[in-house]
UniProtKB/TrEMBL annotation:
Role: Binds specifically to cytosolic chaperonin (c-CPN) and transfers target proteins to it. Binds to nascent polypeptide chain and promotes folding in an environment in which there are many competing pathways for nonnative proteins.
Keywords: Chaperone
Organism field: Klebsormidium nitens (Green alga)
Any one GO cellular component localisation term in the record: prefoldin complex
Identification of the protein by name: Prefoldin subunit 3
Position of the signal peptide: none
Quaternary structure note: Heterohexamer of two PFD-alpha type and four PFD-beta type subunits.
Length: 188
């Protein structure tokens, strides 16, 4: 059986925790501290990974609705163009300051790409780009959620192993004390 402190199979950067079925056999000839230290380090790694994945999940959950809104706006502009209608839009000039504009025959839109970069795209290109980004963000969110579930299983397995090793060490110390007390009682 593999040691819980040695790396198991890795799944998308998350090392699989090894479950210890028989703690007595596993701990035979090993010091408790020598086993506990790598387990505690692995536990801390899992908690750090969990924080990273949780913040990534929050960012994706915020990004997906924004992509959907942007895609809906581009689709609306395309519909207005095809119907040869003027599009009346409200847009934000500054915080809580809006203006109304009439757009005749929209040909393109400007999209923020990040890092203070804005690029102008045709409506068709913008639609394709936003759809691709939405698909990628949705797939990434599903992967992150799956990784979080897997990671939580590894955290639980590691916590159980830590508790079992600790309890085994407590039991051994108690048995040693009782044996020493019995031997001290026999000596008198």
């Amino acid at each position: 059986m593999a040691s819980p402190s040695t790396p198991g199979p890795v799944r998308r950067g998350i090392v699989e925790a090894q479950f210890v079925e028989d703690v007595h056999t596993f701990m035979d000839g090993k010091e408790g501290d020598a086993v506990m230290k790598p387990l505690q380090e692995r536990y801390q790694q899992y908690k750090l990974q969990e924080q990273t994945l949780t913040s990534r999940r929050a960012l994706l959950e915020q990004k997906i609705p924004e992509l959907k809104r942007n895609l809906a706006i581009v689709n609306k502009l395309q519909e207005q163009k095809e119907a040869e209608k003027e599009a009346e839009v409200d847009f934000e000039l500054a915080d809580q300051i809006f203006a109304r504009a009439t757009i005749k025959d929209p040909e393109s839109v400007c999209l923020w790409l990040g890092a203070n970069v804005m690029v102008e795209y045709s409506l068709e290109e913008a639609n394709l780009l936003l759809q691709r980004q939405l698909e990628n963000a949705t797939a990434s969110l599903e992967a992150v959620i799956e990784d979080l579930h897997f990671l939580r299983d590894q955290v639980t397995t590691t916590e159980v192993t830590l508790a079992r090793v600790y309890n085994h060490e407590v039991k051994l110390r108690r048995e040693r004390r009782l044996a020493e007390a019995a031997q001290a009682g026999d000596d008198t």
